[in-house]
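The methods section describes the discrete structure representation at length, but only in general terms. What matters is that the chain and its backbone geometry are given together, residue for residue. Nothing conveys this as quickly as seeing an actual entry. For illustration, here is how one protein appears when written out as sequence plus structure tokens:
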Amino acid sequence: MKPIYVFGHKNPDTDSVCSAIALAYLKQAQGIHCIPKVIGPINRGTKWALDYFNVQAPSYINDVKVQIKDVKYSKKAYVNENESINDTFNFMKERDLTAVPLVNDDNILTGYITLKELAKYLIGGRRDIVDTNIKHLLKTLNAKIITNYNHDFKGQIQTCPVSSETFIKENTLKKNDIVVVGDRFKILDYAIDCNVQLIIMSGNKVLPKELLDKAIKNKINVITSSYSSFELCNKLSLSNYIKTINKTPHPHTIDINSYYQDFLNLSKKLNYNNYPIVNKNNECLGVLKLIDSANYTKKKVILVDHNNYEQSVEGLEEAEIVEVFDHHNIGNIGTTTPIYFTCRPVGCTATIIFDRFEKEKINCPREIAGLLLSAVISDTLLFKSPTTTQIDIDLAKKMAKIAQVDLNKYGFEFLKASSSVKGLSVAELISQDFKSYMINNKQYGICQITTMDFDEITDNIPKIVAKLNEMSETLYEGVLIFITDIIKQGSYVLYNDESKNLVETAFELQDIYEGLFIPDLISRKKQMLPAIMKILD
């Protein structure tokens, strides 16, 4: 069963990461195969909490786009290049294929055969040459061994359409020749004397004892078939290795991990009906028939701590959203079918997740409770943020008890570790907790950084503003950074040049400057974003 991926938003904060880990654990306890993921680098505070409770960080997921491995292709629909033409045709008929990949003994792709190429061979190809082995000969010709000394056979077919005397007079048989004959004993004797490679007798005829003894003495390969000489001549070349008519040794392939949409675009250009599927080692896995390409399974995901396309993973529109757990305003994510959507006006998604543990009566381990507690502390700034509710406080106390930590002491240590910005580059600083919002069809970026020492950032303000201006020239209409000081209970604001009037109007300020401190401005969700949206709307 394919897993359900659980993840938070881009530039994940502690709530986004820890809620994903905890929810995946809860779902696993309910028998649902879930895997926590992250879609961006983990910040310092989250790393500190993970290390403290000895929990491995979730692995990164780049996107949830539909890939070829999600499409229902014909698995193991390939033929070994040493199979016979006859068996290859039968395989294609059984699997309803108009083309089939050829592979070697290691399943490495070596070619590609179409029904069109088979038809060309049967109608106009060189049918008087045999290149095969004893196994294919016996199967294709419904034959039995009389004498056998070789495994492989390669030579020219010789038939006997004239009298024995005329044939012997006009034909000089060579060692590599393959003679098709019935009970014309003079020709059989002549063929044995010439030491031909193989004699195929039609109509289930057998060699007289004296000719058999002679064939054994000369080590001549002899088989007998139920078919007539005419039928043998028609069927003999069908025992040849399929690789002998391989006209496409380097076919166009589709990587199993490539994107479905890229395949659709390519298929419109190539206009093939069948595509060999390979892995990174060029091992063939099967065939994707164009007629089956619309039959695919979407990746299943559960979103935590967000419900906006702009804040989520690449390709989310191609995935199946199973469930959402969030504590923000309702965003722009839509689904084609009803889903479970849990969105509560609390300070942290982790509060909702822990409450679900209690309601489902599922035991919450110490390390999971510790991570959830870290998320609540981070989002509520140890209950100083206006987003904090009594539910957050009450459940945080329960989390602390399970995690076996002193709530206030651990909270201060966590905030101290997570608020350090020392040594971070400008790009790392901006990406700490950056979220994108689509407002009136225009993109805005709002970053919130929590720190206990704004002086660590002061010297970099010109570089930060320059970066914000650069971002506003390419993707964003406006980019703002709020640096929240836990001790002073307010936020410093930085903005791109074009957003100065927006900041002044939204927060009712005059003569603002980069790095202005705004008292009591702590919550992006309840204070910063609503004020900005009100002006823009």
The first strand starts at residue 4 and ends at 7. The first helix runs from residue 14 to 29. The mean pLDDT is 93. The chain has four domains: 4-66+299-418, 69-124+244-292, 143-226, 426-536.
